Predict the 3D structure of the following.
Amino acid sequence: MTLLLRDCEIILPPPSAFLQRSTGFQSSLSMIFDILFHRRKNIMEVRDIAMKAYYEWKHVFKLDPAKEISEADLEKVCESGTDAVIVGGTDGVTEDNTLDLLMRVRRFSVSCVLEVSNLHSIVPGFDYYLIPSILNSRQAVWINGLHHRALKEFGHLIDEEEILAEGYCVLNPEAKVAQVTDAATGLDSEDIIAYARMTDRLFHMPIFYLEYSGAYGDPNIVSQVNDVLEKSQLFYGGGIESAAQAKEMSAFADTIVVGNVIYTDLKTALKTVDAAKEAAYTKGTE
């Protein structure tokens, strides 16, 4: 008799054993719970060892809870060697699909991070909670309103060391995030650098995020921003669809975020991991 549990298999004694001795059933149940408890404990211990702090990330994958991904593809993403998996999106993000994706990713040792896009998606169990401040939004709610509401309702449930503010600069006018947040995307390099300095020196946010969301950005801009940041970690996200692009942006950004290509060309997406880490290693030895 075999009991199948999502990702493990447990062999039970035959039914006749349960009929012969009532204690057989009890001992079998005890065995099951013991295996599951130690299995979960081992996974958590591996995660604690493997988990990297956000400032050590070179490459992260971003998964949208509103998009479908098979178990096989999810395993490839989580076992790819990426430094973390960010869960987040703009449309259709709910408590249910966020929790579902969290539980699926938690089967693996990779760090799992929630980027908060609305208050309905905040659930416990993530390693970090990224709260974006859209610095170039024309609406104050996207600059500090979400932060205030999130901490008012959930601040007592989350360890302060798990909360990371992101200074976002959204630069693709066609992106959904730009439209939803009413971002002023027509910025020149001096404007962008000023936002980077605000994040780094005025607001002291741990992360400055250059967000092109669906479009490949200007490496020259990323390079200039990298030159002025002193403490904030530089995240770059947008339009990375090849290992070559991952390598190019990783030469300037501290962390690259790869998202859409996961759903269109997973094989290529997986190649961005080694490309990013190779570029980061080369940069670190120069």
About this structure: The longest strand covers residues 163-170. Residues 1-47 have pLDDT under 50 and may be disordered.
